[in-house]
Amino acid sequence: MSDPSRVYDVVVIGAGPAGENLAERTSAAGLTSVIVENELLGGECSFWACEPSKALLRPVVARADARRVPGLRRSVEGSLDIPAVFAHRDKMAAYWQDADQVDWLNSVSVDLVRGHGRLDGPRQVVANTQDGETVRLTARHAVGVSTGTVTAIPDLPGLDKVRPWTNREATAARRVPGRLAVVGGGVVAVEMATAWQALGSQVTMLVRGSRGLLNRMEPFAGELVADALRDAGVDVRFATSVTEVAREDGVDSPVHITMANGDSMVADEILFATGRSPHTADIGLETVGLVPGDWLTVDDTYRVTAVADGWLYAVGDVNHRALMTHQGKYQGRIAGAVIGARANGEPLDDSRWGPHAATADSDAVPQVVFTDPDVASVGLTTQEAERTGRRVDVVDYDIGRLAGAAQYADGYRGKARVLIDLDRGTVVGVTFVGPGVQELLYSATVLITSEAPLERLWHAVPAFPTISEVWLRILETYRDRAGQVE
């Protein structure tokens, strides 16, 4: 980097999926864009979360599915091939190299500065490069913050000396710990408990709350996952708070864990999956009147509401709207289109489901939990509908009753829940739990975003025998319960 000062239309801090999409969309709108990244392009998802975690989970779930198919059980007895699983994980994480991502960035005409980017006043970003240089970047139109999140580590005595696992260590580990303690009950906790138990660890889950696992989803989702984890050999403990951890003989010695109820246990590694914090402590927020370490609150065009003149945008996990990779990419696409339209003097269409509106963040956020069984959800849960005053009818169906489910797995266990808006006659929330249901999620997302009336759905005929026939059974259940005749 020979030029210490550069001017672009758009400067993006953070090259995770959300930042990459934001930069690509502004470039596609004819704007000059640069992205600043201090680690690997592709961010947490590509190297320490989505890609490596699903690579660890895929053989686990595939084996579980095969064991439920008559004629295959004997073929999949025995333990997993650990070196092969790790090799697949390494491949899917691109061996922690980002050359392909750099090539892609070049292909969409977005410049890259490798270094730590910090705001330095309105429309100003200072990047301390990995070569020891300081580069000042000025944005004519917008600065986008896409720095994501970090693991929220609790303040516990002795934790700094223990070197606990976070999602990064859990997805990149080179060996299987004999005993693994997982602190937390959310998505990362249940996925990593599923993976490492199947890989050979004796897993104990320590869940602070008593409401169960996955407590932001429908309760039956966490219940079915907890049952499956216990059946697999995981020790799941609720209402259990960790108060102290210690390694008595250095970082390679066992972890001694003390709980608030007086219980104690010993593990070889301890994973904290206790939520996420915004990665904003050292990006110069104070230079534009914001508080370092805070989430960045945005409007529905992803402008940071507390910054005057509307030049600062925040996409992805850092705005705390929907902490999922695909949703961050969606936000990057919307914000990029917004910035492009504003820069080019074009009118915005921020109507519901318009190209410049973030409607999906509130009404149609899809999520998959890659456990055995799968959990897939989109839209409202029953609790959210009650809290927001939406009048909904809740329709449940036992997926195991389907012919397609019986074909998929012997003894299939699963459940579907669909929320129907009574005032509009549309689907506003869906949750599926069961083997293979992740592939049903896009159809549910389309139903919600298209606001298709129930009368129309009778003409969407599911193929027999597939699990997608659940849609017909849900419609029949709703009709019969309401005493209607079609």
Automatic annotation (TrEMBL):
The keyword Thylakoid does not apply. It is an enzyme of class 1 (oxidoreductase). Residues 8-327 form the FAD/NAD(P)-binding domain. Coiled coil: none annotated. InterPro entries: Class-I_Pyr_Nuc-Dis_Oxidored, FAD/NAD-bd_sf, FAD/NAD-binding_dom, FAD/NAD-linked_Rdtase_dimer_sf, Pyr_nuc-diS_OxRdtase, Pyr_nucl-diS_OxRdtase_dimer. Its cofactor is FAD. The keyword Ribosomal protein does not apply. It comes from the Bacteria. Keywords: FAD, Flavoprotein, NAD, Oxidoreductase. One of its GO terms (molecular function) is oxidoreductase activity. Its EC number is 1.-.-.-. Residues 365-471 form the Pyridine nucleotide-disulphide oxidoreductase dimerisation domain. Belongs to the class-I pyridine nucleotide-disulfide oxidoreductase family. This is Dihydrolipoyl dehydrogenase family protein.
